[in-house]
Each structure stands twice: as C-alpha cells, then as structure tokens.
Amino acid sequence: MSDQHPELLRVEALRKEFPRHASLAAKLTGATHEPLVAVRDVSLGVAPGETLAIVGESGSGKSTLGRMILGLMPPTSGTITFDGRDITALPPAGRRALTRDLQVIFQDPYSSLNPRQRIEDIIREPLDIHRIGTLDQRRERVRELMDQTALPDRYRRCYPHELSGGLRQRVGIATALAVHPKVIVADEPVSALDVSVQAQILDLLAEVQRQTSVAMVFISHDLGVVQQISDRVAVMCQGEIIELGPIEDVYTHPQHPYTRALLSAIPPADPTQPYQPIAIGDPVPLSDADPGCRFRGRCWLAEEVCAQQPPALSPRPSGDLARCHITERAPDTWFEADQAITIGGR
C-alpha cells in the first residue's frame, strides 16, 4: 500500500534516551553513566489504509516508539511527521487537536476505561471533547459505533466491570473510531485476551479498516498475531529496527537471525509437524558506543565482523530491509545452513 499512496505518518531518526540513576558509590567517585537508549534512530512510515506491525520482545523499544508517536513521551531527537506536518514538539493545544486524527487502543481493556462511566458515555466522550455534532447526533453516533464493533445495545448502560475482556476491548475500539481518525496506534491490543477472543478482535480490526481505510500501527510481541492483520512488519531488537518489509516476504524469507528466532516460536498449525523454537537467551547489554551488531551476543551466526562494524539496514532481493552482515552476504541461502531449525512448521 505504501507504494501506491504517500505516507500519512513518518518517523525519521527517532531516538529516546532515559537517564540512568547513579549508585551512591558512583556519585562519590564522580563516575558518569551512559543513558539508557530505548529507541535508537528509528525511521519508518505508514500509508493510508495500511497496517504496519511493530514487533519485538519485551524491552525492544516498540511501546516507547508508540508512545512517542502518540505524544505521550517526547523524543530525545528525530522527527515525527503527520499528514505532511511536523508534530514532533507540538504545544499542548496542538496535541489535543491532533487526537482527533491520531487515536490509540490500549493493551488492557479494563484499566484504560473509566470504571465510573457507562459504556455509552465512554464511547461518546471523544465526541464531547471535540464538540462534534449535537447531543442527539452524538448519541446516534454511539449507536452506530456499537453496531460497527458488534457491541449489543443492551450493554449501553453497563459499566466496564460488567463486560468481558473481549467486550471491553470492543469498547476501546469503538471509542478510538468515534472521531473518524486517520491513524490508530494499537499497543498490544489483544495480548490480555484469550486466544479465541484474540481472533475475534483481530477480525474486527481488519473489518473496521476495510470500512474506514484508517491507517494502523499495530504493536505486538507476537509474530503469529500480526500475520493475520498486517501489510508490513518492522522487527525491533534492543531499540533498533533490524528487519522491515512486506509481511509475506518477512515470514517466507526472513533476513535476520532474530526474526527467524521469533518466527520459530510460532507453534505449527499441524501438531504432527516438528516444533523447534530457537533458543537465543536474554538480551546482552552493550554500551551505546559499542561498534558492533547489538544482537551478536545471542546470534548463532555471529562472526568477527559482527563485533567490529555496525550492520546497516540494507535492501535485500526478497523486498525487505535487514540489518545483518551475514545475511547481506548470502541473502537467499544463509538459512539453509541449518536444516534442523524450522519456522512455524514451514
């Protein structure tokens, strides 16, 4: 989709650093501490009607990236452009106005809803804030949204605690859609739900997107989930994008060992197929000044060059971008070296 339409949302060289709290001994000796770099010079974009998934394990920086896009956290450096306008450092009034075009679906469908409000009031609140239509028109819009998200009318006067997790997440989706946004950032929107309910919510999001052409940034730790809904996927590891491309290309021909490890964790649909997840261990902390690949401490393919030079995010014949010295040298054959490893039963 991004080839057919100009990008609606673009982040360029986005970076987020957090200061580290020095220990008492460090304060006494005057030792300095490097900041924690949560997002490291990330660049990506999303087009109208497209779903871009941002995937990575806990601590990879994906949710921090989402919060910066939403204006919930200021970036240390870099730019965020929305609809051709730089929104990196908007004043509060400008950011409030932007919420009409840029909405969010949160991970927890209970804590993100006001427990003291009835469902109809929660869904109507964005319309009230932006003063859209008359009161009767807002009420009619709430009925339309409940119908669109398959929320039975009988729940209109209920409170969040009276609804199941799946129904509460439908309320969150209806609320995000209320003001006809251009982009929705969905931060782990199904991770707190049962597998069967996850499928229902993913189907709902896909149907909503077909109806409205809203662009979506879908943040998740689960490559199996994003496969069902995404057009493209950006894989993050230790604050960097290490692979970016069309969902079919990334799943069929992964160009980074980390992506391959994540894919190997997807159980095969056929239980008779071998299930052999790749064990890569926990992230290995590296200094920000370290010149090498940030994944090399967990990579079974690592060579000397991986410790000496930072790999660039370079194009591959499959159509995606990847940050790896080894696969750049042999993009079509590197994964054939170990036939014992399978990816999701493929």
From TrEMBL:
Family matches, as Pfam families: ABC_tran (PF00005), oligo_HPY (PF08352)
Gene Ontology BP annotations: peptide transport; transmembrane transport
Keyword DNA damage set for record: no
Gene3D superfamilies in alphabetical order: P-loop containing nucleotide triphosphate hydrolases
Occurrences of domain ABC transporter (ranges): 9-263
Domain of life according to the entry: Bacteria
GO molecular function: ATP binding; ATP hydrolysis activity
InterPro entries noted in UniProt: AAA+_ATPase, ABC_transp_ATP-bind, ABC_transporter-like_ATP-bd, Oligopep_ABC_C, P-loop_NTPase
Full protein name: ABC transporter ATP-binding protein
Keyword field: ATP-binding, Nucleotide-binding, Transport
Claim: Transport is one of the keywords in the record: yes
